[in-house]
Amino acid sequence: MKRKLLYSLIGAILISPVLISCDNNQKTAKIIPSTVKKYTQPTTLEGVVSNNKGIVKSGRIKVTDESGRPIVHATIENGHFTIDVPANTELPILLTASTDSDTEQWTVAVIDDKISKYQINPATTAIAKAAKAMGGYTRPNMVRAAEETVHVPDANKTTSGWRGDPTTQYGGWH
Fold first, then answer.
1. Total domains, the chain
2. The domain that contains 95 carries what CATH number?
3. Which candidate, 104, 100, 107, 105, places its Cα nearest to that of 63?
4. What distance lies between CA 38 and its chain's CA centroid?
5. Could you tell me which residue, 9 or 103, shows the higher pLDDT?
6. CA angle 127-58-61, nearest 5°?
7. What phi and psi, each to the nearest 5 degrees, are found at residue 23?
8. Residue 136: how many CB atoms within 10 A of its CB?
9. Which residue did the predictor score with more confidence, 69 or 19?
10. How far apart are CA 167 and CA 165, in angstroms?
11. Is residue 10 included in any domain, yes or no?
12. pLDDT digits over 4-36, tens only?
């Protein structure tokens, strides 16, 4: 009986470091609190509205939160808009442009409080719709939506259009 107890005790002592190390290897999920971005002071946003035909000469801009609650509105004048967003407005917000007749509508999702210039056009509308379908207007969703929505032709995969040695392209250096 004493031997059995002794063997059990020795076994427990020998196996305990293994159990402890197994427990330490388990990863615990860390909950990272998401910080709510917002405009801490009144902020002016400005930009250009266009459609597939060119600049939209006149219309309206409305700023809403994610759920569609209106925040502020302004007019489009000769394709340009300037709109003042009040302090403490939480992001993301949507800038939605429409023609005077409401026959067309375009949107851009605003997720960064440091950017103040925006283009609103069919491409930004497609990106905003794709990001919302992915689960919301977060930076990862917006980046992924932009990558999947906007297509670059295979012949031009660089930002500058550089396609090779300048001495053989365009007749070389003369």
1. 1
2. 2.60.40.3700
3. 107
4. 15
5. 103
6. 50
7. -65, -40
8. 14
9. 69
10. 5
11. no
12. 443 444 444 444 444 444 444 444 444 445 578
Q: How far apart are CA 66 and CA 127, in angstroms?
A: 15
> What percentage of the chain has pLDDT greater than the value 70?
66
DSSP code for 139:
H
User: In the chain, where do the E strands start and end?
Assistant: 38-39, 43-51, 54-55, 58-65, 70-77, 80-85, 89-90, 93-99, 105-110, 117-120
- Supply the range of the domain harboring residue 85: 39-120
* CB contact set of 122 (below 8 Å; sequence gap of 6+): 51, 52, 106
Instruction: Judge whether 81 lies within some domain.
Output: yes
Residue 100 pLDDT > 80? yes
Closest by CA to 66, choosing from 83, 89, 88, is: 89
**Which whole number is the average pLDDT over 101-106?**
90
Contact 13, 86 (CB under 8 A): no
Q: Which amino acid is residue 83, in one-letter code?
A: I
